[in-house]
Amino acid sequence: MNDMPKVRLRGLYKIFGTDPAEALDHVRNGTSKEDLLVQHKHVLGLQDINVDMQAGEITVVMGLSGSGKSTLIRHVNRLIDPTAGEILVDGVDVMGLSEDGLRKIRQDKMSMVFQKFALLPHRSVLHNAAMALEVRGVSEADRTAEAMKWLARVGLQGYENHYPAQLSGGMQQRVGIARALTANTDIMLMDEAFSALDPLIRTDMQDLLLELQEELHKTIIFITHDLDEALKLSDHLVILKDGAVVQQGEPQDILLNPCDPYIEDFVSDINRARVLRIRSVMGPLNAGADYAGDVDADDNLESLIAVSGGETNKIYRVVKDGEAIGQLDMRDLVRALVPRVSSAQQSA
Known about the structure:
alpha/beta, 6-stranded mixed β-sheet, 13 strands, 22% strand
């Protein structure tokens, strides 16, 4: 079994300015992002990023505006070159690739879904979806068949001869996803892909992405500023602040165990019942327990509250793939719904 991450970032720095190498020395010697700008007129984009992105998982990188998340994703396919550090894709450092090698990895291994859709307005939905294969020189018949398959899969069958201006925002983004799927790359880069959509459409697109991922197991790097979206989509969550990683890991663990006041503030207003999974708060099985029923480990706590009728004196057996793996006492569920008091509140 190959445990090598699909994408690995090691010691990644990005500094914008006229002399980034000199500015890098200042950063490594402890100069803050704010002081670097004021004193040296350089902008710190990324600071010592170390992240492993596993094959077949959704890695979500989130943070507020200016945190460096979009800068980070543009390093993966070298739309931006780092000031220092390694970018490894399948173990190959993309910084060592020739222009032809970089072009090939962009065409064959990576596809990108943009926030503003990035569709060609003068080309039909079908031609937009098939564009990556056209660039590769795939025959018209083959690329048409492949594009039609994925357009149907994202719910756009019958719209292949329309033009982007004739579609809603949600439909345009479906074209963008179909285009990425038609490219048939291992890695999908999604930069704020759903941020421009209305809330209901955005939820539909999130559900579509999870449905497709269940089937295709792509390596997806997804950028967002929305914590609800991040918690819903991510297998691995990376939270940035001022260009640095504040916390990363399994999203349920981050929600239950924030490591920093910044993260505590981030998660304090989250609807924990809707986000937390039963597996995250269950305990070990008790042979003598009187179980009120079985619940699935991946169901959220909100669903169990509905099943229990809100009663707190019940204990449920937790199952996964038909096997009992633990139990959940409703009293433990109630405790899990109470967020940890933030450091700022404690010191107030």
